């Protein structure tokens, strides 16, 4: 049963546009994450957010930024998309400050033309 | 190099056959997790297994930390088991989970 909700599930846009993906979890978890899955299907952490503490993967370009209104929401904003941003973006959550067991959303597939 | 190595990369099974998927890691870890990814993208958590053996239906996960490996056993495979099985290790909170490339399983009737 899905408890991590992502919207939209698909988005097609052009280079230079701004894109936002929304994520909400109903599990009462303390930590949320964004992962990127590239064309080779490798999943890599982009951000983790816990109790207002943001941890950023240093390889993530600055045009990406997470936005959170409360611990149940963590959105992902891409300021000016590039072709290499085409990927599936997966939101996840876990209980507690450590990673623990992760629960993923359905994913948001971004295609940049 | 890749910190998490999964083997085999792909596997074809006839319905009813058993399968063993391997995951080897090159660093120490806090925990190991197995996920199933459906064709189409969503990930389902199968096991959160820091060490030892866990069972869930036809699936068994065994993690041996000293040997830096974890395995996922599928018994009596069904066509609905088709998909990609990913293992991920948690060795550093700040870095999140480190994923392998997965084992793509295809089960035919």
Label this structure with key terms.
heterodimer; A: 113 residues; mainly beta; seven-stranded mixed beta sheet; four-stranded antiparallel beta sheet; globular; B: 109 residues; six-stranded mixed beta sheet; five-stranded antiparallel beta sheet; 58% strand
Order of helices and strands of chain A: EEEEEEEEEEE
Class inferred from helices and paired strands of chain A: mainly beta
Mean pLDDT of chain A: 90
Q: Distance N terminus to C terminus of chain B?
A: 37 Å
Q: Give the overall form of chain A.
A: globular
Describe this structure in words.
Helix content of chain A is 0%, strand content 50%. Chain A has 113 residues and is mostly beta strands. In chain A, strands 2, 4, 5, 6, 9, 10 and 11 form a seven-stranded mixed sheet that branches. The N and C termini of chain A lie far apart (34 Å). The mean pLDDT of chain A is 90. Chain B is mainly β. Chain B is built from no helices and eleven strands. Chain B has strands at residues 4-7, 10-14, 19-25, 31-37, 43-48, 52-56, 59-64, 69-74, 83-90, 97-99, 103-108. In chain B, the strands form two sheets. In chain B, strands 2, 4, 5, 9, 10 and 11 form a six-stranded mixed sheet that branches. Chain B has a five-stranded antiparallel sheet with strand order 1-3-8-7-6, with no helix packed on it. The mean pLDDT of chain B is 89. The chains are: A mainly beta (113), B mainly beta (109). The A-B interface holds A 33, 35, 37, 40-45, 48, 55, 57, 88, 90, 92, 97-107, 109 and B 30-31, 33, 35, 41-45, 48, 84, 86, 88, 90, 93-97, 99, 101-102.
Structure, briefly:
Chain A has 113 residues and is mainly beta. Chain A has strands spanning 4-7, 10-13, 19-25, 31-37, 43-50, 53-56, 64-67, 75-78, 87-94, 103-104, 108-112. At the A-B interface, strand 4, strand 5, strand 9 and strand 10 of A face strand 4, strand 5 and strand 9 of B.
């Amino acid at each position: 049963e899905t408890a991590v909700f992502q919207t939209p599930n698909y988005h097609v846009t052009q280079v230079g546009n701004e894109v936002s993906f929304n994520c909400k979890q109903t599990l009462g978890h303390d930590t949320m994450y964004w992962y990127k899955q590239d064309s080779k299907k490798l999943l890599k952490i982009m951000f983790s957010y816990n109790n207002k503490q943001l941890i950023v993967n240093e390889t993530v370009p600055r045009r990406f930024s997470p936005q959170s209104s409360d611990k149940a929401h963590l959105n992902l904003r891409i300021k000016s998309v590039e072709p290499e941003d085409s990927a599936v973006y997966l939101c996840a959550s876990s209980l507690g400050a450590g990673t623990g067991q992760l629960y993923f959303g359905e994913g948001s597939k971004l295609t940049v033309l | 190099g890749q910190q998490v190595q999964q083997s085999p990369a792909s596997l074809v099974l006839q319905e009813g056959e058993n399968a063993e998927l391997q995951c080897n890691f090159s660093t120490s870890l806090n925990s190991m997790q197995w996920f199933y990814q459906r064709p189409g993208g969503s990930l389902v958590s199968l096991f959160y297994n820091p060490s030892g053996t866990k069972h869930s239906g036809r699936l068994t996960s065994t993690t041996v930390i000293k040997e830096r490996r974890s395995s996922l056993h599928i018994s009596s495979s069904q066509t609905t088991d088709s998909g990609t099985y990913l293992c991920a290790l948690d060795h550093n909170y700040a870095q999140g989970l480190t994923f392998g490339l997965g084992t793509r399983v295809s089960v035919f009737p």
